[in-house]
């Protein structure tokens, strides 16, 4: 069979370039040319002779500098090969690539290939999204709460600001569920979750389904009076839902609120314990009310 190496390389999907020990391009395959022309380069652009290392360093982006460092490591023999995953979004499309760098044995040349890994990245994003959210209501789940509360706790420690947690529980939900059935119960949970979510306006506000008919609202950089205002709006919003209890009254919630600065508590989870205690007091006081604590 009489086929050349470049015929084989031109048949591959990966964009491939061969560079010399100084980073100068000696060869690019057809996929490389096609990708470049789909990004606005002329189809007959002369790639050979251009310095790829210098191109990576232009603009001093993190990915560009990382790529240049890895290529230099392979050229100098510090590594046998190197991989780098990096985003390369166009104005119309999100996409990611993986760069692979290796020395061509018995030569001073290095082969660089770029593989499109967008499908895998999108699936990873989806899996991450599913693992952090409640499938019924779409709110965040406990895992997201742990992640976010920890992140915000560190932020508040750094900037000496406070944060609040609202623990929200539907009153007599068991009676509702038993009377109207589980499916209607699910619709009620979705409607309540929507009200809570619609009151989470700021970037640091995170609405969570904590379990069953219990919800958490994490309010970053929010003091006790502001948290109480949000809680009252949620109560009013839920009472205004076009749903009613078996006794023909509005759906109500009890809310426990805890508000603190990280300097006064050891960890974010303590805020949840405190909100839980306030929720218990709200239930004890006859339900459909808020109780608040803000240790100094
Ligand atoms: N439909 C539905 N019901 C749920 C879900 N998760 C938990 N529940 C129900 O929520 C009810 C919670 O009951 P309880 O813990 O006794 O609370 P409650 O009846 O609201 O009473 P108080 O909180 O004291 O006002 C139980 O009947 C659970 O079966 C769910 O995903 N869907």
Automatic annotation (TrEMBL):
Pfam family for this entry, one: GGDEF
EC number per UniProt: 2.7.7.65
InterPro entries: Diguanylate_Cyclase, GGDEF_dom, Nucleotide_cyclase, Rev_trsase/Diguanyl_cyclase
GO molecular function: diguanylate cyclase activity
CDD domains documented for this protein: GGDEF (cd01949)
Coiled coil: none
Lineage top rank: taxon: Bacteria
GO biological process: cell adhesion involved in single-species biofilm formation; negative regulation of bacterial-type flagellum-dependent cell motility
GO cellular component entries: plasma membrane
Residue ranges of every copy of the GGDEF domain listed in the record: 161-295
PANTHER family for this protein: DIGUANYLATE CYCLASE DGCM-RELATED, REGULATORY COMPONENTS OF SENSORY TRANSDUCTION SYSTEM
Protein name: diguanylate cyclase
